[in-house]
């Protein structure tokens, strides 16, 4: 089997941030997949499942209700490694295009008070595993990264080409 593109990113060099993971085309329509990387792989502790689940409910609800972008949101959900989330949007976009949306979203999650949307047995398959306090903490830490991002927080690490050996250069 061929390696899928997301496995070609060197996760040992990946910082927290907002990255374009891939772009797929369905006819002439583009779907952009964003990697919302909240935890630095192999450096930070991964998110607890209660935080991931609470953030999934809060952020999916917030994004789909956003008056500017809500109609372009196709999917928001967690990564199995618990270091972040994927956001799929119907448009050809770059991280910088949606940065204000992501800032608003994580500010909302960090400050959220009240009942978590969709957190009842009728609405959710396992609503007892949600931790709002941990979710707010994780959202606040991520918000602090993206409020003033650097290039390393918006673009995947560049793969470096191997340098030619001195003996190769003479030939």
Q: Tell me the Rg in angstroms.
A: 18 Å
Oligomer: single chain
> What can be said about the biggest beta sheet?
4 strands, antiparallel
Give the neighbour order of strands across the main sheet.
1-2-4-3
What portion of residues is helical? Answer: 25-40%
Q: Count of DSSP E strands?
A: 4
Distance between the termini: 37 Å
Percent of sequence in beta strands: 15-25%
Overall, the morphology is globular
Poorly predicted ranges: none
Number of continuous helical runs: 4
Indicate the structural class.
Answer: alpha+beta
Mean pLDDT across the residues is 92
Helix/strand order, N-terminal first = EEHEEHHH
Keywords: Autoinducer synthesis, Iron, Lyase, Metal-binding, Quorum sensing
Protein name: S-ribosylhomocysteine lyase
InterPro entries: LuxS_sf, Metalloenz_LuxS/M16, S-ribosylhomocysteinase
Family: Belongs to the LuxS family.
